[in-house]
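Reviewer comment 2.1 asked that we show a complete input and output for one of the modelled complexes. We chose the fe (iii) ion case, as it is the one discussed in the main text.
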Amino acid sequence: MLLHGFAATTQQLNAAVEMISAAAPFRHLKTPGGRPMSATMTSCGRCGWYSDSQGYRYERLDPANGRAWPAMPSTFAALAHGASMAAGFGPFEPDTCLINRYAPSAQMGAHRDADERDFSQPIVSVTLGTPATFLWYGAARRGSPVKIRLLPGDVLVWGGAARKGYHAVQKPEGGVRINLTFRKAL
Ligand code: MD3
Ligand code: FE
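Response of the prediction step:
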C-alpha cells in the first residue's frame, strides 16, 4: 500500500539520518560474490543488515567497528508503527531500519527481501531526498514491472503476499535519495 506523503516531518527524519550515519557511516557493502553494491548503506536498531563473502544476514554489532548499531530513534519507530496501522497490517514493532543512500548513479537491481525470520511481519519503506522510480515485479522476476515514482515523504507498506515480491529501484532523478526500510528481522 502506498501512503503518499505519510511522512510529513521529513526534516526530522533527515536530521536523524545525519546522526545515525555520523556513528555508523554509510558504506558500500559487497555481495557474497564480491561485487560492491552501488547504493551505500547503514542501519540502526537492535541489529543491522550486512553483506560480504559470508552472505546476506543481520548482525547485532556493526562489523565495521564492533560496536552496537545506533539506537532506533523513537520518531522512526512511531512512523513505522503508524504506517502499518494505516495500511491495515496491525501493530508493527521493527527491530531494525536499513538506510539506503543512492548517489545519482546508484540503483538497486531486482531482488526480494528474504533474510528476515518472520514473513508475516510487514516491511515499511520511507523515501527521503530526490525522487526515484520504484519497480514492482511481484511473485516472479520477469515481465514488465509496475512503475511507481516515489517522492520524499512517501511511505510504502508491504504485507501479506506482497512481502515476498520482487522489486527494484532506478537511479534517483539527479540528486541523492535516501530510503528507510523498517523490518522485524530477529
Ligand atoms: C517489497 N530498498 O532495502 S524500498 C531494500 O528504495 C529495498 O531503497 C529499495 O528494496 C529502496 O531491500 C526499495 C521498497 C521496498 C522495500 C522492501 C520490500 C519494497 C519491498 C520488501 C518486500 C517487498
Ligand atoms: Fe528490497
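The chain has one domain: 2-183. We note this here for comparison with the apo prediction described in Section 3.2.
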